[in-house]
């Protein structure tokens, strides 16, 4: 039997609305973009989305499953997003709550949780990660910070997502300096801290920046798919040279309205994983952002639970975390987790090395 | 005096909220991503956003203007979006209503309205445009459609935005066939119809697909910046070989919530124009989508009114338009406009050539 992409919607219904008719409208809008009577019969079965299921949830909502032929994605990331929610993003009352069959389109994470544990040689317990900030510091200053943080015991030291190629610390200068600092620290500690540069090149600099990272021995990069385009993340995952730490910048529009968009579990969980995220950063409940506990658990599940042949990915709850949250987060979320504390770490001790050591001990006891 | 990017926000206020404090939070979140007391003084003035203005609008809303140094964008499209709304997309109650100073970062449209009039040799009156659809047809079928539409008098024949590189009509096959058909039609009619392929390549195919379009004499391409990444559109505009027809696919999340995001005027008007759109497609009031008249006028204004040294761009109101709307749209929106009718055109007559001729006559009288 043909494998199809199955997209689950929660449809908001107004008085007199017919759920099947609404679902049929979505299936047409996202494919043929024509009224039903103008679509040739053969394309109706081959190309137009098919309604697999319709259930009323209550008076105001229905659950619909629309399936699409994998051919309609062309195997490309941009067209996948286009098919899922392109034009209908500009309508109202359609919420994607789950997607089945993504593993028929994209291979998913190339490292996954096990692969990242091998890279960092952390075989038990959660990982610890922090960010180089603020924008405005020089490459040398970031290198010094990274050295101290690696000496203190961080597993992953990532760029802040605002570090692009500004004159303060240009990419081609920052990456070698910070990476060399982390390598020097690893030589001292006999540990395996990784530096994750923020990989946000214009398309014409993609290969050059990629080669730079390769030549420097970088093992993991951070990618913001909403900013650089969906295919850039998928391409990095496809090549398999770097683990991918996905960042949600600009994604929030998709979950601003309660009844329209794609849930955070779908975007930061299922989609990010399918397009190759080995780890997905999200704003944890109780931080500077607005996610609730249910949303965070949904993202974790979408990243870690079995999904076709996909490797599981690390959840990275973040966005204003502090050392005193670690116990609760470990109990709630388990050990297959990356703890990310940025600004909060700098308050934990008078110097970065001690702060990093405190953080590591709080998470792994040593 | 230093030119800065000035971002206007409408802030939603809850009981006891202090607008200045909220604005300060945005200015920090989008740059240093640290609490105020952790930011070195020199970076506070150089890097952190500056509050230029705060006014209460009413009990529940304030108007804030936050300015950023142009250096913080690094001159790159992805980082511009990151700076404007990256992390705060995941908060609530922040709406960007206007941006000043984009012309300090990007050069804007390379053709603009005058340039596109030269390309099509339509020096007076609005232009007429239609779409090749549905997905599932072969390249030969699209070529035949395009020939008939060009003979009937279309100025621009664009791919449907769902046509990517699917096996039904692969890009490298479709573009030459359709373009040759349009050239043959132009030889017959002595007119200058343009074919606008949907340019949605994975990054590793960018140069090849670009060269293909160049070699075929393509003069205009359609780009979906939310799908392919912001830099791809900016890069095409920078090179100046093709006019850019921007498509809003997936943009809708930004305007799903009334009080959080960026207005459609900002996204589909100011931002698309600054990143090089010579024409911007949007879902017109009264079609299949949900924009109101005010929003449509705001987009038109953002595209056509003076903005620094930017050339004006064509508004392209679309999304379920029909021939009987043309009179009203012409009166409301004026002549510096591209009328786009897709599916509705196929109902206008029994054959495409006659339908196209009717459409052209309805818009330009000949």
> What fold name goes in the CATH topology slot of the largest domain in chain A?
TIM Barrel
Order of H and E elements of chain A: EHHEEHEHEHEHEHEHHEEHEHEHEHH
- Uncertain stretches of 5 or more adjacent residues of chain A: none
Strand content of chain A: 15-25%
Shape of chain A: elongated
| Total beta strands of chain A | 13
Structurally, how many domains make up the residues of chain A? Answer: 2
Major sheet of chain A: order of its strands?
Answer: 2-3-1-4-10
Highest CATH level, the class of the largest domain in chain A: Alpha Beta
Number of helices of chain A: 14
CA radius of gyration of chain A is 22 Å
Mean pLDDT over the residues of chain A: 96
Distance between the termini of chain A: 52 Å
Greatest interface:
A-B, 84 and 84 residues
Describe the structure.
Chain A is an alpha/beta fold and 366 residues long. In chain A, 38% of the residues lie in helices and 19% in strands. The first copy, chain A, has 2 domains: 4-104, RuBisCO large subunit, N-terminal domain (Alpha-Beta Plaits, 2-Layer Sandwich), CATH 3.30.70.150; 112-364, TIM Barrel (Alpha-Beta Barrel). In chain A, a hairpin with a 2-residue loop joins β2 and β3 (61-69). The longest helix of chain A has 19 residues, at 171-189. The radius of gyration of chain A is 22 Å and the shape is elongated. The model of chain A has no long low-confidence stretch (mean pLDDT 96).
Give the topology, please.
2 copies of one chain form a homodimer.
Chain A: E1 4-12, H1 19-29, H2 41-46, E2 50-58, E3 61-69, H3 77-85, E4 94-100, H4 112-120, E5 127-132, H5 139-152, E6 156-159, H6 171-189, E7 194-196, H7 206-215, E8 220-223, H8 225-228, H9 230-239, E9 243-246, E10 261-262, H10 264-274, E11 279-283, H11 293-304, E12 314-318, H12 326-333, E13 338-340, H13 343-346, H14 352-364
Parallel strand pairs in A: 4-10, 5-6, 5-13, 6-7, 8-9, 9-11, 11-12
Antiparallel strand pairs in A: 1-3, 1-4, 2-3
Helix pairs in contact in A: 5-6, 5-14, 10-11
